[in-house]
Amino acid sequence: MSANKTPEQINRRKFLKVAGAASAAAGSIGIGIWSVESGKDPMTYTGEESYQGAAQYFNRKRFAVDVPPYEKVGPTRRVDARTEVIFSRIGRLGQEWDDEKRLDGLSDDLKAYYQENPETLKLDLEYHREIIPKWRRDREKYHDQYVLSQAWNNAMGSVWPPGNTEPPEIADFPWSAPGQLAHQYKMKSPEKTAELIKHMAHQFGSTLVGITRLNPDWVYKHTMRNRGIDVNKPLDIPEHWEYAIVVGTPMAWDPFYANPTYGSSRESYAKTRIASYRLAEFIKSLGYAARPHTPAGDYDLMVIPIAIDAGLGEQGRHGVLVTPELGSNIRPAVVTTNIPMKTDKPISFSVEEFCRTCKICADQCPTGAISTEDKEEIRGYRRWQINISKCHNFWYSNLGNVGCRLCLTSCPYSRKSNWLHRGALKVSANDPIGLSHGIMTDLQQRFYPAPDVEEYFMPSMGGSNASYRKPPRWLEADEYIDFSGGVQ
Ligand code: SF4
Ligand code: SF4
To answer: From the centroid of its chain, how far is CA 197?
Structure first.
């Protein structure tokens, strides 16, 4: 004991020492517990959110509805993909059109389609005669600016499972030997199977997943290309296409934000395609039938209404899916199967009401393909419909990666999922009468101003090939490539 200190002083010091040590220990333990606990938080960023399913955070049960948020208003009919899907129709027109014979030179189905839709014929011919030659000339001139975005796009699309070219009765089933089906495992319950399938879909890289029974109205009457299915014979829907699992992944954020010139659909197409092929293989390994219907173009059905039935989101004014988590920044695929599963309900989270006041996508669309009017009747359903030929013609009226995606980029639902936008989503989803929607649309336009629509066109068409936002630095070719010597 020191001579000049009282016992009280010593006890006090001891107390402070012990207390300090205790509080340091408690602090450390607290930080430790907090770290461990926050490490368990599914929203903690680890880069594995898709694989763990945490990116699908929206509580769909609260917004579940018995009837999907589109309306059946008349007799329905299935899509003839040979003519009604532009990718099939426009290629065929290029091969078959003869200026002398005109409509008489076309196959019967194509001729009948254009007789019914003369405006579409004009736009599709304009694509072949004017838009593509102009695009080729401009591309020669301005290509260097987009060399990195195209290299990135090519790289992202380079891993790409090949499409099915065998008929469903062969390709969809697991065979242990020729003519011999593999063993089929008995599942415990449709609920447990749905849980497992969803977990696996996330494991296979899908950000969102939903399950529905397949509505035959959404299956093409004639398919658009050879998938082992004769395109000229009406498609009999195979019995084993009983359920539809919808998977989807987002496009990389920064290039997406710099649409139409720097964005790409292909990288997300590849991710979704891989996830759906993996999922189909997983199901087949349990002895059940499964077939992926995937981007780009290997679909035998209409994906958006199926995604709506499966509760992934609603259709927006721009014609495509709006999901709570990713807005319209999603590229979906479908796996049809016969493994019994509990299905999801569609959801209604006020997108229809929001779209009535918003119209930002229609204002931003460079070609006026998106209507500012109300929904219309299409094949017996009341829905939003865009002018696909006008849209498609614009894809080749700008440079960079083919496509546009401006309506997806500029949609207020397609914002980064930070606290602000999650809060705004909660407000709008819980406001079915739309009191907040006008204010939110106004805020969106103030905080996310966009170029004039004419600016999106190529210089030869009077624009400056503008993007909605600046490209990410890593796609700016000037930053990395020395063009001073010209092309070697
Ligand atoms: S992709 Fe572009 S051209 Fe097509 S509808 Fe959307 S904004 Fe219009
Ligand atoms: S931009 Fe507006 S109107 Fe268009 S789909 Fe999105 S919310 Fe609807």
So the answer is: 20
| Global pTM value | 0.90
Alpha carbon of 439 to ligand 2 centroid (Å): 14
The encoded tokens of residue 445 equal 């336009």
Q: Which helix (H) or strand (E) holds 24?
A: helix 7-40
Where are the alpha helices (H) located in 41-162, listed in sequence order? 49-52, 81-84, 86-96, 108-116, 118-126, 132-142, 147-156
Number of other CB atoms surrounding residue 11 within 10 Å = 10
- Which one of 370, 385, 402 would you pick to mutate in the ligand 1 pocket, going by the greatest count of ligand atoms within 8 A of its CB? 370
131 secondary structure, DSSP code: I
Least confident of 4-18, 444-458, 468-482: 4-18
Residue 19 pLDDT > 80: no
Of all protein residues, the one whose alpha carbon is nearest to atom 5 of ligand 2 is 316
Cα of 270 vs centre of ligand 1, distance in Å, is 21
Beta bridge partners of 247: 209, 333
Say how far apart CA 436 and CA 425 lie, in whole Å.
Answer: 11
| Probe target for ligand 2 pocket from 314, 355, 384, with the most ligand atoms within 8 Å of CB | 355
Residue 22 has pLDDT above 70, yes or no: no
Tokens of 215: 């509505």
Residue 407 Cβ inside 6 Å of ligand 1? The answer reads: yes
Taking the CA of residue 359 as reference, the ligand 2 atom at the shortest distance is 3
Cβ–Cβ under 8 Å, residues 335 and 279: yes
Q: Decide: 225 and 88 in contact? Cβ < 8 Å.
A: yes
Q: Which tens digits make up the pLDDT trace of 188-240? A: 999 999 999 999 999 999 999 999 999 999 999 999 888 899 999 999 999 99
* CA 32 to ligand 1 center in whole angstroms: 50
DSSP state, residue 207: S
318 pocket-lining for ligand 2 (C-beta < 6 Å): yes
Condensed to tens digits (0 to 9), the pLDDT of residues 124-136 reads 999 999 999 999 9
| Spacing, Cα 67 to ligand 2 middle (Å) | 22
